[in-house]
């Protein structure tokens, strides 16, 4: 993965999307002095079956902020689109373009936007697909003053500085980051999602997180030099 960038804006649909893999790379980037900010399109309010949305969104926001701190990320923002029914279209693209113009990143990070996760029967969710595709579109929208000209009226001048878009968990991964030294922090980051994990699995969240991320990073290692890794599909602009 390229390292000739200073600022990254990670844009995903839900709390926990970044922790199921990408956080190991993020921990290494922040430790090396790169700036990483998170933008969550929803608050994940529809993600915990035994909690009503009005309660779940508070829990999930709190868990996401704690999770981000573990890997050195202090800025966590939410757009408040509806969880589970994110609509792909101009409104979402405008919200993302606005955020890109504010944060002025060289690297955008998002989650798999393809129809599947790369294994038979592994259908991807509508929210992931919608947000991932919108991030790719908004990378260009952010640099064109005639797309969403109202953003200029708001004081957000065009930003053409996005050089890379990295897609985590893509079935078409082309690049990877060695996470040998940051795997423990990635596990701790995912384990901060106590309520979410507890609704999925009876194990201790830390045990669940370690098993999941060990398997995920070892799977990537088979393709990328034999070391625990987080993989990305990389687009350049």
TrEMBL record:
Record keywords, A-Z: Zinc
Q: Which GO terms describe its molecular function?
A: hydrolase activity, acting on carbon-nitrogen (but not peptide) bonds, in linear amides
Q: Which GO terms describe its biological process?
A: glycoside metabolic process
Q: Which InterPro entries match?
A: GlcNAc_PI_deacetylase-related (IPR003737), LmbE-like_dom_sf (IPR024078)
Q: ATP-binding: present as a keyword of the record?
A: no
Indicate whether Metal-binding appears among the record's keywords: no
Highest taxon above the source species: Bacteria
**Protein's name in the database:** N-acetylglucosaminyl deacetylase, LmbE family
